[in-house]
Amino acid sequence: MNLANSGLNQIAEALDNREMSSVELCEDYLTRIDDAEQLNAFITIDREGAIENARQVDENRQSGASLGPLAGIPIAHKDIFCTKGLLTSCGSRILSNFISPYSATVVERLSAAGAITIGKTNMDEFAMGSSSEHSYYRPVLNPWDTTRVPGGSSGGSAAAVAAGLIPAATGTDTGGSIRQPAALCGITGIKPSYGRASRFGMIAFASSLDQAGIFARSAKDAALLLDSMCGYDPKDSTSLDIPPPQCTQKLETPLDGLRIGIPEEYFTAGLDAKVAEIVQRALKEYESLGATLIDVKLPNSDAAIPCYYVIAPAEASSNLSRFDGVRYGYRSEHGESLAQMYRKTRSEGFGPEVRRRIMIGTYVLSHGYYDAYYVKAQRVRRLISNDYSRVFETCDLIMGPTTPTTAFEIGAKMSDPVLMYLNDVYTAAVNLAGLPAISIPAGFDELGLPVGLHIVAPYLEEARLLQAAHLYQKHTDYHLATPDLVT
Amino acid sequence: MSDWESVIGLEVHIQLATRSKIFSGASTEFGAEPNNQACLIDVALPGVLPVCNLEAVRMAVKFGIAIGAGINRKSIFERKNYFYPDLPKGYQISQYQIPIVVGGTLDTVVDGSVHTVGITRAHLEEDAGKSLHDEFPGATGIDLNRAGTPLLEIVSDPDIRSAQQAADYMRRLHRLVTYLGICDGNMQEGSLRCDANVSMRPRGQEELGTRTELKNINSFRFVEKGIITEIDRQIDVLESGGTVIQETRLYDPIRNITRPMRGKEDAQDYRYFPDPDLPPLVLSEEFIDSVRTDFPELPEQRKLRFMTQFNLSEADAAQLTQSRPVADYFESALDHADNPKGVANWINGELSSYLNKEGIDISDSRVDPDALGQIVANVDSGVISGHGGKILLSILWEKPKLSINEIIESENLRQDSDSGTIEALIDEVFAAEPEQVQRLKDGNQKLIGFFVGQVMKKSRGKADPKLVSDIIRKRIRS
Hints:
The structure holds 2 protein chains of 2 kinds. By secondary structure, chain A is an alpha/beta fold. Chain A has a domain at 8-258 and 458-480: Amidase signature (AS) enzymes, CATH 3.90.1300.10. Chain A has helices at 8-16, 22-35, 47-62, 105-112, 155-162, 179-185, 219-229, 247-250, 273-288, 304-319, 338-349, 352-365, 371-391, 417-421, 428-433, 462-475, and strands at residues 42-45, 74-78, 116-121, 168-173, 188-191, 211-216, 259-263, 292-296, 397-401, 437-444, 450-456. Chain A has an 8-stranded mixed sheet, with helices on both faces. Chain A has a 3-stranded mixed sheet with strand order 1-3-2, sandwiched between helices. In chain A, helix 2 packs antiparallel against helix 3, helix 10 (304-319) packs across helix 12 (352-365) and helix 10 (304-319) packs across helix 13. The longest helix of chain A has 21 residues, at 371-391. By secondary structure, chain B is α+β, with helices and mostly antiparallel strands. Chain B has helices spanning 54-66, 163-179, 220-239, 285-293, 299-310, 314-321, 324-333, 340-358, 369-380, 386-398, 404-410, 419-432, 434-441, 447-458, 465-477, and strands at residues 4-15, 70-71, 74-75, 77-81, 91-95, 101-102, 105-110, 113-126, 130-136, 139-143, 150-156, 192-202, 212-217, 248-252, 257-260, 273-274, 281-282. In chain B, strands 1, 2, 6, 7, 8, 11, 12, 13, 14 and 15 form a 10-stranded mixed sheet that branches. In chain B, strands 5-4-16 form a 3-stranded antiparallel sheet, with no helix packed on it. A two-stranded antiparallel sheet of chain B has the order 3-17. In chain B, helix 9 (369-380) packs antiparallel against helix 10 (386-398). Chain B is elongated. The termini of chain B are far apart. The chains are: A alpha/beta, B alpha+beta.
């Protein structure tokens, strides 16, 4: 069995047929993780915990106990999710000593389904970034080309799944942090509708935009994990009190008369020609499978990035206030007074990108600027959301490129934050509107770097999203390709 | 010298009497070991989220209904951002632009004249923790037990015109919220805390003067004294040609002065914005109706009921309903004694003097309402005399565990109602005072009291005085 690109159903079958035990499976993945250490995909590897839990599942399997749908399958969690007894750093120095006393609801749900947590993946500090270079724990490398970034902020999870170090992993997506790295690493990454998955225990970046999601090798695998992960959580007031989406059950339902909206704003200057060509080819593929392509307009697309970069930092500036050195986490030794302790702790504990966003957020919420920035951005957010509602009156899905370019070189955009922010030009609007979206592999550019197809569905239509992605993956094999690094 | 008018507005924080905190499941009980009542959410660990406690919402709505206010069907929780070690999240969740309660009034009565005070708003928010500066040398301790306790901040219009009115406003607010059962009213534990905005203007002038804010005046007495002191200070400043500076001040009750609060370097910008973790608080008509139908009796209604149901005088009824615990005590005691007037007299008289002596509230009375009711019942049925009842209460006050019947027996309080014994005692007294007996027989009715007293003395208080008096009257007629 080739672990580099095995689907979850193959792995589950092998476990079921006793071709391998869960302990052996975990050991194999742990070896792969060790061999690919140079990718810096992981911050924490929980060998003992994983093996112990795998042994437990193996015993249960032997005894004929009823097992969850993910029984014995190792996964990794982005280090933004609190995991009881494990370091939960969020990629930051300020939490570099924080062992969480509790687990996030998402972590608990996946564990309850039988999944085994093998470790915690690297990320941009507090999920702020599009390259996973802004980590206190060294930058993550792209397995397709280790001189390039894997995207971010969930770059560790994306790189780990792409390199076959783990069959699936969790991530979070505030402006594109799942879909962009999934595109740049050539895997499937889905962000469900806002409110589908509990945010309890997921360290907040921008509360009104953050949503947990999944990295996997296929839409089918993503569906299985999403079904286990989603659902109402009374501990999160923004989680939706509705049944989980049941994506797996609906995966093979045919999409008769599928209407796909192609926003003209997505195919303009700034989009790499090769990426455009590959995305167009993917759209043709859908057409040949029976879908109708419709030209649509999302007229407020231009405003998405500016709007996002007011709202997200505003919320972040407040969300990150709790990291003050008083109760847990890093505290500077140099504080003579209380004010100085705060200043030094936060200056030393946060990296430059986090500090930049706290400054932006503090500014836009300040007296005299609040109306001009924050209130206005909220109004723009509504316009952007209305654009989607209008388009979905005539379309079932929207498709386009996930990112304007393929993976860029490490360091290329570190000195120009705005250039970095433009990575999320196609993805951030979706978070502002709270919609579900997925990125799936659609081909490779002339350098052999993966290109992602971005699919957006109406609110709560995760199942339709995965049906469409699954349909494509049944007729293509881009998602089965593995980087050379992996043998 | 000008004729000055004081303009006062009060901001009162009341701690809502919910079992758990406003955004977490931790207990709100007072007095636990530091940080033993602070859960993951109160400590603001990474990743935790607030969930609004509906009980606190219900209490706020109850208050709004009681003062005739508007209840916003949709109100918004916002974040008030500032750094302080006892503020774990670095922001306080409060309501700002759209509070839950808007408008309403509360009447004050000073020297018999009624003055209506408008309520601007009342909003829900969470309390902060406490900084402990004295417990650890060279360091500050943080106790987060109080963090997240639900508060209702009640803001009055600047309608109050004197320190006496301010104190009365606070007393009546205290009475109202305890009657509503939304606050335990415990001033020592900080369940009701008051800030006062005070400004002066020449009488007749429309425009308001510059105000100062007196922070944390937490007793009725200090509200009155603090405001009087601040009014005097402002008049002095103004009459000596100075100007009042807008600032926050503290009242020092020991020196009876107010002084500026130090430490505020510059004006804080709290950067309020709607809390994205909490959806707007939307109240259905059904919810509000359910609060309305489950409404407790308010002080004025209860007073009127006491007057009609128990045939009490207005003075008695007013005294009994001045605080909910007293009225509750009264009604509980009535379960054992079918004598409202008698129970009222015992509470307002004998029991009150014990409570006042020790400076405690009736809710902490060592003699519970059941026992008091039984004392009154025993007196009424003639088992013990009124004097015996007082002895019984005094013993019970010291040893509340003892049973009433045991005390009656052990202290020999049972009243003698055997007429034979009483006849014998009267014979003895009459024999000793032949001249007085003659004057009594000659029609000097005043002497009856003297003879009753003599007989009571001989019986050591055990004879039923009414019976004694009846027998004496019979004897002199014959």
